[in-house]
Amino acid sequence: MDLFVLLSIFSASVIIGLFGFIFRYKFFQSEPEKVVQDDPVDRPRPGIRTQHRNTLRRNNRNVVEPRNENAENDDATADPSIVAAIDPKLGAKKRAKLEAKAEKKAKREADLQEREDRKKKQDAEESERKAKEDHEKRQEQERLALEKKIEEEKAKKEHLEYIQLKETFGIEEEGYEETLEDEGVTLLNLLNTLRKIK
After folding, report:
1. In a domain, 194, yes or no
2. For residue 121, is it within any domain?
3. What percent helix, strand, coil does the chain show, rounded to 5?
4. pLDDT by residue for the chain (198 residues), tens digit each?
5. Distance CA 76, CA 68 (A)
6. Total domain count for the chain?
7. Per the domain annotation, does 125 fall within a domain?
8. Which among 70, 80, 84, 89 could bridge 98 via Cys, Cβ 3.0 to 4.6 Å?
9. Has residue 73 been placed in a domain?
């Protein structure tokens, strides 16, 4: 008994679903035929709900205004003031569309110009920064070379002073005996040499 009830419920739901599908399919098949019309402007139709009206508008745009690439390119290149002067019957919608295209084109060109200017400015700043870094690097190398030269001259001068001092205190004889006279003379020579150097 339970199996019989379940099968009957299942078959009833399948039948209802098929009827719904068939009616819906027929409704959408007949709808595009109604949409194709000579008047491209949508006007409110009495008795059609808002949802269906929006669907009709969408379909109407797709059917009535097929996109022609050549016509769009002509519109993009045409100046709206020239088109308005040539065709006085030009509708407000078309005029607004041309003006919007002209504004977009002007904005796009302004953005492109701004990007180019920004890139030029960045390139100029980059080259200026590199030149400044090179200049600082050269100054640092010159400073290091000057310091090295000063240190070398100082070391050379100290070495010459050492050699002169060494010649002043020359050892004549080898031995371990020292006399007070030799020591006194050596000290005097050392003091005199130091005074001369200073």
Report:
1. no
2. yes
3. 80, 0, 20
4. 688 899 999 999 999 998 888 877 776 665 545 444 555 555 555 554 556 666 666 666 555 444 554 444 444 455 555 555 556 667 888 888 888 999 999 999 999 999 999 999 999 999 999 999 999 999 999 999 999 999 999 999 999 999 888 888 766 655 555 565 667 778 888 888 888 886
5. 12
6. 1
7. yes
8. 80
9. no
Instruction: Determine how many CB atoms are found less than 10 A away from the CB of residue 53.
Output: 14
* Domain carrying residue 139: 82-168
Collapsed DSSP state (helix, strand, coil) of residue 45: coil
HEC sequence for the chain: CHHHHHHHHHHHHHHHHHHHHHHHHHHHHHHHHHHCCCCCCCCCCCCCCHHHHHHHHHHHHHHHCCCCHHHHHHHHHCCHHHHHHHCCCCCHHHHHHHHHHHHHHHHHHHHHHHHHHHHHHHHHHHHHHHHHHHHHHHHHHHHHHHHHHHHHHHHHHHHHHHHHHHHHCCCCCCCCCCCHHHHHHHHHHHHHHHHHHC
